[in-house]
Amino acid sequence: MAQTAAPELLPGTIQEAEEKPRSDREPGYVVICWNDPVNYMEYVTHVFQVVFGWARQKAEFHMLQVHEQGKSVLARESMEKAEHYVHQLQKYSLHATMERDQ
Amino acid sequence: MKLIRSTKQQLEFRLGRREKQVLLDLLKLYPCLPAARQPLSKSGGLPDPATGQALLDEALAEQRQENRRQLQALLADPGRFREQETGWRLSLSPSDLEWLLQILNDIRVGSWVLLGAPEERLAQLDEKTAPHYWAMEMSGQFQMQFLEAMQGPN
């Protein structure tokens, strides 16, 4: 995945926001898109852009992950939101499921 | 099929007579993908998987019904296909194109399922498989041309 620049801390400031333990975070489900030999790469990229509102570069990154690694985790969400995304992706006939975040 | 004009509200395509017939023949195949084919989860680790799956199947069935209704309306609209000297002109809005892509992919994936979901290209076709193969390939061709038109010149 494309790297983002680490936030810069100024001298004398305290970093207040600590990352919560994994179990405390609300999202408990992952949305996964699985590879299949029938959907065109271009189409999959387009669907990711539409469903998640991603820029083309990010959509292509996940499309290639699906193509090369057999699957890609597209989102970590609450159950309701994960269900929504799976529905949206399946509406476009992509092979998508939701699984409990391990 | 060729994109001849594109604005934010409308895209116009020129189709040959045979191309138009192929597109109409394809669209008649919708819906092609078997209903309730897709699982909500592979691992089954959801709190109430049966309810979740039922809700998903219901939502997808409603979506198909809506797509079918929109498709029938589009095909019945005389302003969509206008005859020209050398063929036809098809006018679509960007949102028309979006659900048309869903419909064409349903036909593509559904035809692939009817072919037995092969991992590799079929080595031989027969009377039974040829129509599904034709539908899979032709819907893919239209999909790619619509996608190209939506993206515009890069």
Task: Describe, in short, the structure shown.
The complex is a heterodimer of chains A (102) and B (154). With 102 residues, chain A is an alpha+beta fold.
Strand content of chain B: 5-15%
Averaged pLDDT of chain B: 91
Strand numbers in spatial order across the main sheet of chain A: 2-1-3
Which structural category do the helix and sheet elements of chain A fall into? Answer: alpha+beta
What is the strand content of chain A?
15-25%
Tell me the strand order in the biggest sheet of chain B. Answer: 1-2-4-3
Indicate the low-confidence ranges of chain A by residue numbers: 1-17
Given helix and strand content, the structural type of chain B is alpha+beta
Rounded to the nearest angstrom, the distance between the terminal CA atoms of chain A is 20 Å
Instruction: Note the total helix count of chain A.
Output: 3
The topology string of helices and strands of chain B comes to EEHHEEHH
Number of helices of chain B: 4
Distance N to C terminus of chain B? 19 Å
Q: Compute the number of strand runs of chain B.
A: 4
> How does the major sheet of chain B shape up?
4 strands, antiparallel
**How would you classify the quaternary structure?**
heterodimer
What order do the helices and strands come in, and which of them pair?
The complex is a heterodimer of chains A (102) and B (154).
Chain A: E1 29-34, H1 41-52, H2 56-69, E2 71-77, H3 79-91, E3 96-100
Antiparallel strand pairs in A: 1-2, 1-3
Helix pairs in contact in A: 1-2
Chain B: E1 2-6, E2 11-15, H1 17-27, H2 49-76, E3 81-83, E4 88-92, H3 94-114, H4 130-151
Antiparallel strand pairs in B: 1-2, 2-4, 3-4
How does this structure look, described?
- The complex is a heterodimer of chains A (102) and B (154).
- Chain A is α+β, with helices and mostly antiparallel strands and 102 residues long.
- Chain A contains three helices and three strands; from the N terminus they run βααβαβ.
- Chain A has a three-stranded antiparallel sheet with strand order 2-1-3.
- In chain A, helix 1 (41-52) packs across helix 2 (56-69).
- The two termini of chain A are 20 Å apart.
- The longest helix of chain B is centred in the middle third of the chain and has 28 residues, at 49-76.
- Chain B has one domain (2-34, 49-151).
- Chain B has four helices and four strands; from the N terminus they run E-E-H-H-E-E-H-H.
- In chain B, 53% of the residues lie in helices and 12% in strands.
- A four-stranded antiparallel sheet of chain B has the order 1-2-4-3.
- Chain A binds chain B through residues 32, 36-40, 42-43, 46, 50, 79, 83, 86-87, 90-93, 95-100, and chain B through 33, 38-43, 45-47, 52, 55-56, 59-60, 63, 98, 101-102, 105-106, 108-110, 112, 117-120, 136, 140, 143-144, 147, 150.
